[in-house]
Amino acid sequence: MGDEKHRIVFVDDDEDLLKVLVNCFEAKGFEIKALSTGKAACDFLMDEANMANVDLIVLDRMLPDMDGVEIMQKLKEKYHARFPVLFLSSLSAEKDILQGLRMGAIDYVGKPFNINVLQEKAFGLISRKKNV
Amino acid sequence: MYEFEYRPLYFILTTELIFVICLMSFVFIKRIFHIFSHKKGEKRIDALKADLVSRLTKPNEKIDVRVKRGRERELIFVLEGFDKRFREPGWDELKKSLIESYVLKKARRWVYYPSWKKKSLAARSFALLPLQEDEEAILKLLNHRQFLIFSNAVKAALGIECEKALPSILDRMGKEMGYSFFYCRECLRFSSPKMLGALQELAKNSKYHGIVLNILSTLTLGKPFPGLIEDIQSENLKIRSDAIVMLSHNPGQGCIQKLIEMTTDQHMQIQAKATAALGNFKNEETVNRLKELLCAQETHWKVRLEAAMALKKLGVLETFDCPQEGQAKEFADYAMQFGEEWIQKRL
């Protein structure tokens, strides 16, 4: 992935899952920011200073205080698809996937998922962003 | 004289008072003990989760997962939580080793315990790690009347692709039309190709035909469903409806003609189902028929609504020049406004 450190923001209320993802991605050389509520995520993501080096945002749909789709909407309004967003959710029915993709997410991964597959998808999306 | 008469009464009242105080003390102490043990249990669960996270993220390091003797329930609880998150070889191996080390032997004994709680733990263990050698135990748990045990036994049976379990599952579905039915239906719909094939074979048996038709109706199958042509002409409305849904997902030669014919059926429910099914096929014939159904005076409102939604789904409604007033216009406007939501919910 090169010498520079890529930054990924994870938003998920499942703290055990966040620990696993943070450890796995940090072991691959990523810088990770983990947030577990919708409000914390909005406060962080809406601040342009925080978003300076962000390469990918991984969002859960079912957060305790809001739907991940609302956060996606706010990101779209502020940054106009500048940051690739990947949904990672246990809501994996066809209509939920279609809704997420229509909102502008680059990809949608349903739970249960394979960590290696998620990592490869993340690498691919970040590489694509860098090339563009 | 009065003292002598009231002495037994004093004795009874005092004894009762002591009894009530002892009972309340017992309840209070039990509550305190429960809160204390619950907090200890939470700490053990957190420690277990931390160990599992370490094992998953550092597979090359030797990290022991601490499970106390007699705490299998906590291990099963944590494993179930992690199982919902991950699907990969590393996790599967870890899960297998933990269950085999701490739970499996006990689970095989719990199946024969009289207590439903032990049977439930056994069923949950088999659902987490279904093994062929536990087939007999799983089939025994499938016959249990408690849904908590039955549901996990279904998962375990489908995990080992046990065809012998299918008749028990279908019998249960036939008796219980509530959540149990929908749970089993979804499990069977998402089961392996081998189990779906076995279901199709069972459909040849008239006892299970209707239920199997309902289960498989929304799937696109690799081979023709036995008896589908007869089902389309069945007198049973439920079977006819399911047959229409199956036909729309498994179209064969002449299927569009059949669906168009069914839009003129004497039963409104069949007309509505056939109209909705036409929304899966975009060609001149189906579009013309849907437009006719939308605009005709004698069409039932449910059928008209399905026609409008089908035209919206086919992307034809926007360019359709529908009448300027009447029900056709109302339903066309409704479909334009709410069609997307309607189609999403139907998916």
Describe the overall structure.
The complex is a heterodimer of chains A (132) and B (347). Chain A has 132 residues and is an alpha/beta fold. In chain A, 45% of the residues lie in helices and 19% in strands. In chain A, strands 2-1-3-4-5 form a five-stranded parallel β-sheet, with helices on both faces. In chain A, α2 runs parallel beside α3. The longest helix of chain A is centred in the C-terminal third of the chain and has 17 residues. The two termini of chain A are 16 Å apart. The model of chain A has no long low-confidence stretch (mean pLDDT 86). By secondary structure, chain B is an all-alpha fold. Chains A and B meet through α1, α4 and α5 of A and α1 and α2 of B.
Blueprint of the fold:
The complex is a heterodimer of chains A (132) and B (347).
Chain A: E1 7-11, H1 15-27, E2 31-35, H2 38-45, E3 54-59, H3 68-79, E4 85-89, H4 94-103, E5 107-110, H5 115-131
Parallel strand pairs in A: 1-2, 1-3, 3-4, 4-5
Helix pairs in contact in A: 2-3
Chain B: H1 2-57, H2 72-83, H3 89-102, H4 104-110, H5 116-128, H6 135-142, H7 147-159, H8 165-175, H9 179-189, H10 193-202, H11 206-216, H12 228-232, H13 237-249, H14 255-262, H15 268-278, H16 284-295, H17 301-313, H18 327-346
Q: What attributes does this structure have?
A:
heterodimer, A: 132 residues, 5-stranded parallel β-sheet, 45% helix, B: mainly alpha
